[in-house]
Design goal:
alpha+beta; seven-stranded antiparallel beta sheet
Amino acid sequence: QNDTNCCTVISASIIFDKDYKKIHSYFAENGRKNGKGLSWYEYKKLIKNLAKKYGFKVCTYRLIPSIYSWSWKSKENESLCFVNSRTGLTVNNFSDYLPKGNYLLGVKNHVLAVKNNIVHDWTVDKKKPITEIIKVESNEKVKEYNFSKFDFSKF
């Protein structure tokens, strides 16, 4: 694509399982220039729009200090995990702290995708502190089984 600094596009393409060119076009239509990254604020806005478009739910978390630890919390004050220091959660140890799932993780000047707790990025073994978290979940409902149609009286 003759593009650099495109981690925002790559991570969105991976997390939503969509073609890179399609996501690249969407980001370009929404202000991203080739060779330039996006602010976390701009990126979050595009991710929320893509999630809505493709049937996903996103929840953002921020790091909040408490008396003895640090907590990653949502706007609704739900805790995702606790760590001992501001820089305690890193790319190479996140799976020790975060519930299994799909995430977009922000580190200094970079973002990466995690699907089923597998990092899809060159930072996979790095001790880069995580500064931002977006949890991404599919809106597809698991089929509920209705057993009332079966006659269990014969057993």
